[in-house]
From TrEMBL:
Coiled coil: none annotated. This is 4-hydroxy-tetrahydrodipicolinate synthase. Its EC number is 4.3.3.7. The record marks 49, 80, 84, 106 as: L-lysine inhibitor binding. Pathway: Amino-acid biosynthesis; L-lysine biosynthesis via DAP pathway; (S)-tetrahydrodipicolinate from L-aspartate: step 3/4. Belongs to the DapA family. It comes from the Bacteria. Catalyzes the condensation of (S)-aspartate-beta-semialdehyde [(S)-ASA] and pyruvate to 4-hydroxy-tetrahydrodipicolinate (HTPA).
Length: 292
């Protein structure tokens, strides 16, 4: 369940900014039909920073309900306060989620020892599988491979989502953490290369709109058919690039609305709709990738 094509699912909202659960169900069904291997609910792409705690919990639980056992659901449970991350993990105990994805604490810039103690406390407070999430481009703090290795010694810390784009870390993490430790890319642009270096899968933004292609590409790559996987990846490359012309999830939410996957492209402030300057660029990328 922690391998292959995993979608960092966006959170659809109506024109007033309220969570649109009808569109959320459509998205879950879309990914089941497309062969997506798992869903991450309320991660960065799901606007975890701007939904309330009550909404956060409800979105995860409704995603579980809509999935109805057809696809594993991983809950985003990260926070920059350790006690809050622990609370999220405890809230989902016994819910049926496959595991938790916990981002490196943002803004407060913890040391490596602080990161270790943060995740140690989470691990000791929950029996759920925990996946570490390192994305220094957003959090500033960078969890180094040596710290990941220390944390991999906890039985329920089972993997890492690495969004650094640094391919040299894949082999290093494998050497330090062992063969059973799950390595997932969090960077669409380098995701296929990550698999080629020994990774297990990709937690993807692009998967929100190119779900069937991403699923097929990951299936081929993990089967060792890299040449065929690269053909798909090359076609999707405009999306890997242009869906990040503004902060995620601004472009992908606009694209999903254009493709009628969701009924509205509303985001929560301080994020705003994709700037008019970039809309033709994203539409061209959708066209080149065969999405429209």
């Amino acid at each position: 369940m922690f391998s292959g094509s995993i979608v960092a699912l966006l959170t659809p909202m109506d024109s007033s900014g309220e969570v649109d659960y009808t569109s959320l169900k459509k998205l879950v069904d879309f990914h089941v039909d497309a062969g997506t291997d798992a869903i991450v609910a309320v991660g960065t792409t799901g606007e975890s920073a701007t939904v309330t705690v009550e909404e956060h919990i409800k979105i995860v639980l409704k995603t579980l309900e809509f999935a109805d056992g057809r696809i594993p659901v991983i809950a985003g449970t990260g926070a920059n306060a350790t006690h809050e991350a622990i609370t999220f993990s405890k809230m989902f105990a016994g819910s049926g989620i496959a595991g938790c994805l916990s981002v490196v604490p943002y803004y407060n810039k913890p040391s490596q020892e602080g990161l270790y103690q943060h995740y140690k406390a989470i691990s000791e407070s929950s029996e759920l599988p925990q996946i570490l999430y390192n994305v220094p481009g957003r959090t500033v703090a960078d969890m180094l491979p040596e710290t990941v290795a220390r944390l991999s010694e906890f039985d329920n810390i089972v993997g890492l989502k690495d969004a650094t784009g640094d391919m040299s870390r894949v082999k290093l993490h494998r050497e330090l953490c062992g063969e059973d430790f799950v390595l997932l890319s969090g960077d669409d642009m380098t995701g296929l290369d990550f698999i080629a270096e020994g990774g297990h899968g990709v937690v993807s933004v692009v998967n929100n709109i190119a779900a069937a292609d991403m699923a097929q590409m990951m299936k081929l790559a993990l089967a060792g058919q890299m040449d065929q996987a690269r053909v798909i990846n090359e076609r999707l490359m405009p999306l890997h690039k242009e869906l990040f012309v503004e902060a995620n999830p601004i472009p992908v939410k606009w694209a999903a609305h254009q493709m009628k996957l969701i009924d509205n492209g509303t985001l929560r402030l301080p994020l705003t709709e994709l700037d008019n300057t970039f809309q033709p660029t994203v539409m061209q990328a959708l066209t080149q990738a065969g999405m429209v």
